[in-house]
Amino acid sequence: MARLGMVIDLKKCAGCYACVAACKVEHATPPGVFWCRVVKLESGVYPQVRRIPLPLQCMHCANPPCERVCPSGATRQRADGVVTIDYGVCIGCRACMAACPYEARYFLAELKGYYDGQGLAPCEELGYSSNGYVRGTVTKCNFCVERIDVGREPACVANCPGKARYVGDLDDPESEIARLIGNRGGFQLHPELGTDPSIYYLPA
After folding, report:
1. Contact criterion met (CB below 8 Å) for 138 and 105
2. What is the arithmetic mean of pLDDT over 65-75?
3. Closest CA to 105 of 29, 47, 9
4. Domain with 180 in it: what CATH number?
5. Cis peptide leading into 154, omega within 30 of 0?
6. pLDDT in tens, 29-40
7. What sign for the dihedral angle of Cα 58, 24, 90, 152?
8. Strand, coil or helix: what is 19?
9. H-helix or E-strand containing 66?
10. ∠ CA(194), CA(198), CA(201), 5° rounding?
């Protein structure tokens, strides 16, 4: 089975937040929950300073610490490496949130949408939403498995106007993302932690 991975080209990323908006639309996440987010970093020394946008999300680590600490087995790793959460099994203990070094998980303390009809509020009194979220559980990026499984790109990839995101097989040395990582010096965030993230970045 191929190991799914993503490459984000920081030279092409304009920090426009299209990926954030696309993710919000695709998954209807509640206010304050961002499966995909962008932070702005500063590089250089005055007066030669530049701002660099850094898109962040669940890293879908090959060695996910969140899975190891999950007492209920709600956090699982698929054969293709994607790390998912089963809301029906999650007990909301938040151990995974403490274990994640990338701060990629969110606790669903309440189910409230941005507007009426978003799909969060109708079943709130029952503790779950019509689009699958369960109050009192943890949520995060699922690599758009509902799109991947039918041969489509994740929403953040498909909607990036700068074409800064690529998805493919990390285990195939001939894949586009493997070549980009090798040719452009692709790097992972915090490789010293031994989590082996499946999200790589190309230098700006």
Report:
1. yes
2. 98
3. 29
4. 3.30.70.20
5. no
6. 989 999 999 999
7. negative
8. helix
9. helix 65-69
10. 100
pLDDT for residue 126: 46
Can you tell me the distance from the alpha carbon of 202 to that of 186, in angstroms, rounded to the nearest whole number?
A: 5
d(CA 53, CA 43): 11
Closest by CA to 57, choosing from 161, 204, 203, 157, is 157
How many structural domains comprise the chain?
Answer: 1
pLDDT exceeds 90 at position 111 = no
Yes or no: say if 167 and 153 are a contact pair by the CB < 8 Å rule. Answer: yes
Q: What is the pTM of this model?
A: 0.91
Locate tokens 């490459």: which residue?
Answer: 7
Q: What is the DSSP letter of 128?
A: B
Rounded to whole angstroms, the Cα distance separating 7 from 166 reads 5
**Beta strands 83-85 and 48-56: pairing type?**
unpaired
User: Which residue is it, tokens 């507007």?
Assistant: 115
**Domain limits for position 184:** 4-202
47-84: b (≥16 Cβ within 10 Å) or e: eeeeebbbbbbbbbbbebbbbeebeeebbebbebbbbb
Residue 177 tokens read as 């993302």
Token pair, residue 16, equals 């426009």
